[in-house]
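ok trying again, last paste got cut off:
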Amino acid sequence: MIKTDELISEAISLPVEVRTLLVNKLLESLNPPDKEIDELWAKEAEKRVEDIRTGKVKTIPGEEVFKRIRKKINP
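nice, full thing came through this time. structure:
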C-alpha cells in the first residue's frame, strides 16, 4: 500500500494539467455535483451579469476591496 507522503509527492510531480484534473476529481468526490443547484447558480450568475451590464449594481475594483479589508483587519 502506498503511503500518504509518497502519494502526495507523486501527485506534486505530475504535470500541471494532470494535477488540475486530479484536484477537480478530488473536489467532486467531496462535493458531488447537483444538477438542480448548478442550474440555480447559473441563473443567479446570469442575473448578476445582467445587473452589472444595466448599471443596476456598481462594481468595486478588487484592489479597493482588499484595501478595505486590510483597513478593517489592521486599523
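cool. The mean pLDDT is 95. The chain is about 75% helix and 0% strand.
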